[in-house]
Amino acid sequence: MAAWCLSLHADYACRRSGACCTSGWPIHVETERLGEWREARASGRLAFDESGCPDGLPFQAAHDLPPGAGAVLRMRESGACVLYDGCARSCAVHRDLGHSSLPTACQHFPRRCLIEPDRTSVSLSHCCPTVARLAFRTDVAPAIVRAPASLVGHMTLEGLDAREALPPLLRPGLLADRETYRAWEAFVVRTLALDVTPDAALAAIAALTNELVRWTPGEGELSRRFEELQGSERFSAMTVLKFNGVIGEHRSAPWDCDRPIRQFLAAHAFGNWCAYNGRGLRTVVRSLEAALQAVRAEAARACASAGRALDEDLLLEAFRAADLRLVHLADPVALAERLGAVEGPER
Ligand code: SF4
Question: Closest by alpha carbon to 179, among 122, 231, 117, 235?
Fold first, then answer.
């Protein structure tokens, strides 16, 4: 099946920052890996610092394991995985047994996939500092492109599996079709590529979306209605740029922090799980507004704790902290339900 990604992420490669191996979050190990690792350790093919592992094994039993998992990785007090070699910044399993012997979560990180019947959308989590750095790039504009083999070729992609699901909802009680949803998604990414404040971009996206969700089947094809709206002067790029002139004064940093924030938001727009977990397009837009609010809150916290004005390093940390909360700690279904309040009361 074809896999797609954001242009910003197409050349992502792990730079061995170690952030994912030292974060302290629980990592499940699939049952079939346990025997392989036991055997590799007994035969001396897998070597790691066994201190803190009473039975010499890097995993332990746990309650509430998801299907397919047999244990969780052991962590040191610092939050580092016992298989992580901090000096060499490498993983013992990766080094001794190869990438395919890693737990699925480790193989996937920082990928976040949406799997549909005919395509897989691969976005990346900014919790990884290497990904967070990609939000600052200026050599490529955000666009949806084919994912190269270097990003997706060496693993079975997992994520939100919507292969059996109906298309995303336009609004509560009314389905969109996948083609129009994707055209709308591409419009959102394109709007976030315009040189405007994140607020102006989101306001333009919300304005078109609020019109689109009023569509009724009696008006003809949804795709035609979307093209009409997109082609109208009210929602043209020129209008967004003019509108930006009205609210652009709110730029808060002496350097251009708008572009990285818009690119962060584009990564949230692409392959957004609220398309299937939510009750309409406005929920997806709301999730982008929530992501912007989360970045601003984390940026304010980072500035207060560092005692200096926002700079690239602090914004990068804000991206990481925001995605830790939004992508890794929040329950995606509960989050979509909460954001879905924008659609009105459940009927
Ligand atoms: S198993 Fe390897 S890749 Fe996974 S968290 Fe541990 S050290 Fe990192």
Answer: 117
Of all protein residues, the one whose alpha carbon is nearest to atom 3 of ligand 1 is 106
The runs of H, that is alpha helices, within the chain are 31-42, 92-97, 104-108, 129-134, 149-152, 178-191, 198-212, 222-231, 237-247, 258-269, 274-277, 281-306, 312-323, 332-339
Clarify whether residues 274 and 302 are in a common domain. yes
Domain check: are 203 and 86 in the same one? Answer: no
pLDDT of residue 242: 77
Q: Are residues 307 and 330 in the same domain?
A: yes
Residues 259 and 299 in one domain: yes
Q: 27 C-alpha to center of ligand 1: Å?
A: 8
* Mean of pLDDT values over 10-35: 93
* DSSP sequence for 19-31: TTTSS----EEEH
Beta carbon of 106 within 6 Å of any ligand 1 atom: yes
Within a domain: residue 18?
no
Answer yes or no: do 257 and 322 share one domain. yes
* One domain, residues 145 and 274: no
Report how many domains make up the chain: 3
Banded model confidence at residue 69, pLDDT cuts 50, 70, 90? very high
Best residue for ligand 1 mutational test, from 20, 74, 91 (most atoms within 8 Å of Cβ): 91
CA 147–ligand 1 middle distance (angstroms): 24
Mean pLDDT, the chain, rounded, equals 94
Q: Which atom of ligand 1 is nearest to the CA of 90?
A: 7
Single pTM value for the model = 0.92
Residue 98 and residue 193 in one domain:
no
CB-based contacts of 256: which residues, under 8 Å, 6+ apart?
none
Q: Averaged over 137-154, what is the pLDDT?
A: 95
pLDDT greater than 60 at residue 270: yes
340: which DSSP letter? G
Which atom of ligand 1 has the smallest separation from the CA of 93? Answer: 2
Structural domain span for residue 149: 3-12+114-160
Is residue 87 a part of any domain in this protein?
A: yes
Q: Which residue's CA is the nearest one to ligand 1's atom 4? A: 106
